[in-house]
Specification:
Helix content: 25-40%
Strand content: 15-25%
Number of strands: 16
Radius of gyration: 27 Å
Distance between the termini: 86 Å
Shape: globular
Strand order of the largest sheet: 4-3-9-7-8
Number of helices: 17
Length: 552
């Protein structure tokens, strides 16, 4: 008689309630599981008592005039979701388990397995690559209709939808400048992997590489008569002559490569625009600067562990004929809009400050003054917004300009938010918002009505970041009421550490020392800044604020 074959259902019925684990072992495993579940949050709570614990930063949104109940509920729902996301991020960043285990695990992944993290990708011979650069370079064509639809729909519920198509924004900007007789020159800077594929892979790939939509975009811009300076030939030639055009552990170019590009851009301006009349005399001085790249700092390795040594590079510092440090000239005929590729050797926050940035090199090659608006992130829209805000405040930053050079990282074409920006000259504000008097620092106490989120340490290629606050109920140090409200910029992160200001939430009362933003803009204006959700507040004249000891 043939043996009965047991099916899976019968096997499962027989095994229900049957185990090879003894009762004492089962109880021990249960206790270990419960200890793991409960001791971790209890330990985190104990640690948080010694520091400021994460808070749920949500303030109910009031109903606007004529607003429907559905719209009010929707706005409050978005605000709650945003607060939950912020709380989750704070809990993750503040987790003692993360601080305890992530650095050694990162070291093992990097040292033994050659793996980085979601931001840093190890290449060949010690080179590091910024993951978003690779996503933009090797990802789908950014102008493909399906890709545009997916990017427009990929935002979080509480965030505004991105504008993924760069062409309308560039065309609009060029048109608005042309209405004032100003020529626009685009300067998209490619990543290292685009110019030097062997730094990423052993495969024999012809350089330079590009996203599959780049050629199409360049052709469409050419049809519109928009000038584009392509730095790829210059960077490719420099890399062949010198071995590389980029820093090994940083997202940015070497000083020499930047200088070559600046010289070629100056020649491009003279040839394609011409007619510049203002002249200046600048001299160069050779020097060196030493630093560790921004990608290396994103690896979150154990303290004291040095996998990548700091690099020392030769720079060319630019001075006036009277041996004064170069400064932007608001009356110049050339305006440079730039991101961290412009600031890399000029901004303290990037770790390579030496008075040798792109604006300095461009002024030196032109032997003409250059105006500058630059910030270390968001090249697709931030500098256009900075320019628009100045105009809206009644400051005509475009007066006398003949050419605007718009530099941005090439990855912005595939990953950036190309939101429309209107350039309208407004009238100076008349006392509606408090502005610190020139040449003075004023101490005020105020309630935070809104505060922008600070960048999280290790998640961005910058060590320092600025946040924005909307303050209400201002009082002077003597307790006297001041103007009802103010917009204030302040440090949210310094050297990859969140500041006490970053821990403040709407409704908190703070004491700040305020000074005019215009007096410090040359020093702090290039740093990455997170804006407020209210676009109208971005048009107000801001102050620079630092927390008083009474608040810290």
């Amino acid at each position: 008689m043939a043996a009965h074959k047991i099916n899976r259902e019968e096997v499962a019925k027989r095994e229900i309630g049957t185990t090879l684990v003894s009762a004492p072992a089962a109880r021990l495993l249960t206790l270990c599981f419960l200890a793991t579940v409960f001791l971790v949050p209890l330990g985190q709570r104990f640690i948080d008592r010694a520091a400021a614990p994460p808070t749920f930063a949500y303030s109910p949104v009031g109903r606007g005039e004529g607003e429907s109940l559905f719209s009010l509920v929707d706005r409050n729902n978005r605000a709650v979701l945003k607060a939950i996301n912020g709380l989750e991020g704070d809990l993750e960043e503040g987790s003692f388990l993360r601080r305890l285990f992530l650095p050694p695990l990162q070291y093992v992944m990097l040292h033994l397995l050659g793996k980085g993290n979601e931001k840093a990708v190890p290449g060949r011979e010690g080179a590091l690559h910024y993951a978003p650069d690779l996503d933009a370079l090797l990802g789908p064509p950014f102008l493909h209709p399906q890709q545009l639809r997916e990017r427009a729909a990929s935002h979080k519920l509480w965030e505004k939808a991105a504008h993924p198509d760069p062409l309308p924004a560039i065309e609009s900007f060029a048109r608005q400048l042309a209405e004032r007789g100003i020529r626009l020159i685009l300067l998209p800077v490619p990543s290292r992997a685009a110019i030097e594929p062997p730094s990423l892979s052993r495969r024999n790939v012809a350089a330079p590489l590009a996203n599959r939509s780049l050629a199409e975009l360049m052709a469409r811009l050419s049809e519109k008569g928009i000038l584009v300076f392509d730095p790829r030939p210059t960077l490719l030639h420099y890399a062949r002559e010198h071995g590389s055009a980029y820093l090994d552990t940083d997202t940015h170019w070497l000083p020499g490569a930047m200088q070559e590009v600046a010289g070629d851009v100056a020649g491009f301006i003279e040839a394609r625009v011409g007619g510049l009349s203002a002249t200046a005399s600048y001299v160069a001085e050779e020097g060196t600067v030493r630093g560790l790249g921004d990608i290396a700092r994103m690896l979150t390795l154990p303290a004291g562990v040095e996998v990548h040594a700091p690099e020392e590079v030769s720079v060319r510092r630019i001075f006036s004929a009277r041996q004064e440090l170069w400064l932007p000239d608001k009356g110049a005929e050339v305006l440079l809009l730039g991101d961290s590729f412009t600031n890399i050797y000029a901004s303290e926050g990037l770790g390579w400050k030496s008075g040798a940035g792109l604006a300095e090199q461009l002024a030196y090659h032109l032997q003409r003054p250059v105006d500058l608006l630059a910030r270390n992130d968001g090249g697709a829209y931030v500098t256009r917004e900075m320019l628009a805000a100045e105009l809206a405040r009644g400051h005509d930053r475009l007066a006398g300009k003949m050419v605007v050079v718009w530099q941005f990282a090439e990855r912005e074409l595939a990953l950036g938010d190309w939101k429309p920006v209107e350039l309208r000259l407004g009238q100076p504000a008349q006392g509606l918002y408090f502005v610190a008097p020139p040449g003075a620092a004023v101490t005020v106490s105020a309630t935070i009505a809104a505060i922008s989120p600070s960048a999280r340490p290790g998640t961005v290629p910058y060590r320092d970041a600025v946040l924005t606050m909307h303050l209400v109920d201002l009082e002077t140090a003597e307790g006297k009421p001041a103007a009802g409200q103010a917009v204030v910029y302040g440090w949210g992160m310094r050297d990859n550490v969140l500041t006490p200001l970053a821990a403040q939430r709407p409704g908190d009362r703070v004491t700040l020392r305020l000074q005019p933003w215009e007096e410090v803009e040359g020093e702090y204006g290039s740093y990455r800044r997170t804006p407020l959700d209210d676009d109208l507040l971005e048009l107000e004249i801001p102050n620079w604020g630092e927390m008083s000891d009474d608040t810290k």
